[in-house]
Amino acid sequence: xxxxxxxxxxxxxxxxxxxxxxxxxxxxxxxxxxxxxxxxxxxxxxxxxxxxxxxxxxxxxxxxxxxxxxxxxxxxxxxxxxxxxxxxxxxxxxxxxxxxxxxxxxxxxxxxxxxxxxxxxxxxxxxxxxxxxxxxxxxxxxxxxxxxxxxxxxxxxxxxxxxxxxxxxxxxxxxxxxxxxxxxxxxxxxxxxxxxxxxxxxxxxxxxxxxxxxxxxxxxxxxxxxxxxxxxxxxxxxxxxxxxxxxxxxxxxxxxxxxxxxxxxxxxxxxx
Length: 272
Fold this sequence. Notes:
By secondary structure, the chain is of the alpha+beta class. It is about 35% helix and about 20% strand. It has helices at about 30-35, 60-70, 100-105, 130-140, 150-160, 165-185, 220-230, 255-270, and strands at about 5-10, 15, 40-45, 75-80, 105-110, 125, 190, 200-205, 210, 215, 235, 245-250. About 35% of the residues are buried.
């Protein structure tokens, strides 16, 4: 699960806790506390976040860790974008903030993002021995079948030279800067600069309710369909993330395609 929100577990069902733009879509200590019930077992953190690109600071994580410890909760920390961070922002793992939160953290990571190895299908977790054994017992009744070649390649990616990762990060940062600047120059859409990952979370609420060819655009999903049909640009509606007035753009493509895609989006906006 990767959300711009935090997620608490209630009777085994993920419950979304919606965050606010004024907090850069990061859950506050107070919001966390107010969402906890007697049946809450764990909280999921995704930092850097998909789709917002926001990164929790050390102090923000300390505040959340304090609440998790106080209420005897596990923390599932999705850190798969940890190496893709820009500017002065630093990645901090909540598991590094003390012995008690270390024992409560289930870290989730993989090679798909930082090493561009999506098709290799290798992910991993790190947790206490007790939790790891329980996860292993569950997984033993399923089929994951991580082949030996993929495992060896992933080991080399993680343990080998990291120069290529840094080169990729620098290129992503250039694309991020360009994309944010272009969006800021357009009418009707806004964004906040992502600190990590490779997504831009775009507020399209001023477009909602506008007409295109006598049809009212009523949601991010409808806008995405129109952009695909009319401009041949694929964007992700963020309805499934809980934000029906946002779309997600990716800069994990060439600058040439970014330039063309943004030009087409601007052309569509100017036609409204």
